[in-house]
């Protein structure tokens, strides 16, 4: 029986074949340059996708919260890195995790470093996050006083071990010149490695974001790359040139509940609680909340004529429909939506349906089973 027969409400579909190709491609790129791929799992948040990545030589992962680290703990990962300035209120949770799992955190100030140095009962690694130049978070690359103060405090504890420097150049999402941003980030990491490698000969440098890692072909002497969104991609990444539309590995299946052919509009059950509210702008200034595809037993097919979700509310979505779409769809059919931002859509939906009709786990699904039968 087709997986489509099991869908009656908004359901996030995961195409394993596309996802695996995306993982394989990024892993091969890292391997060609002698870099270690340490993917950021804030996108997939799935044990099953994690098992796929292991098949391509991936041994370490990055997460964005201690809750996500708990989900992946003790599943064969050599290390789990929490890539968010560490929240000192969670030090006791960190101790519990570090008792059985190699884990590392991100530090950007003396206060949290002091808290960890004083309260850790198990060994924890740490990266110093460096501001990539757009001011979201991190230590200024030239603030050697703060860098050395963090290192000095950490050295007071035998439980807090320096692993290296981390940069997330997230402003690649907002500029066309991704190579310039990466040149700056790679140069910053190279300078820091040169300055501190005598004292810390095993330190690693890591750079990571999907648009940059997809576009750049030379990562210099950086040791590790850490993109996340590449496992699924999405319409934002298509728009940025990171991937092609047929490399997007997830689609939200939604029921059609009304059609107004005179207005060229289709009403769907699928809104902000399913897609989130990330948006792209069309050339005419209208909003695009997701690209429409036709669903079939093998996944989805990209139409010859574009249609997209032009507005959403909590549960409703309104499609600006092409003539092709209007001629093929009827009330009660299912359509697919390629999300603008797959990370947020996955977080909203909390699990995936594979194309063989099984549920695939997600951190928020409340289960650690890799596959759950419908």
UniProtKB/TrEMBL annotation:
Molecular functions per Gene Ontology: D-serine ammonia-lyase activity
Record-given protein name: D-serine deaminase-like pyridoxal phosphate-dependent protein
InterPro entries in UniProt: Ala_racemase_N, D-amino_acid_metab_enzyme, D-ser_dehydrat-like_dom, D-ser_dehydrat-like_sf, PLP-binding_barrel
Family: Belongs to the DSD1 family.
Domain D-serine dehydratase-like: 249-356
Pfam families (UniProt xref): Ala_racemase_N (PF01168), D-ser_dehydrat (PF14031)
GO annotation terms (biological process): D-serine catabolic process
Keywords: Lyase
Keyword Lyase recorded: yes
